[in-house]
Amino acid sequence: MSKVYNKSSEKIEKARKSECPRCKGFGSTTADWGKDEKCHLCCGAGVVWLSGLGWTRPVGKRMEDSKLY
């Protein structure tokens, strides 16, 4: 278990590690082989910390880098 920062309520929430809801764990948002576009939620890792209210944080990033999915 880790934690993410909820910017709207300014509170810290518990989070669990799961696959990225945007790129479905692939780390890329496009299927084109020539393009190298990383997912903005997971930064290309395919895994994020996800809270119950939808706040996400890439694994290895600071708690202040949390984003709402």
TrEMBL record:
The organism's place on the tree of life at top rank: Bacteria
Protein name stated in the entry: Uncharacterized protein
Biased composition (Basic and acidic residues): 8-21
Region: Disordered, residue numbers: 1-21
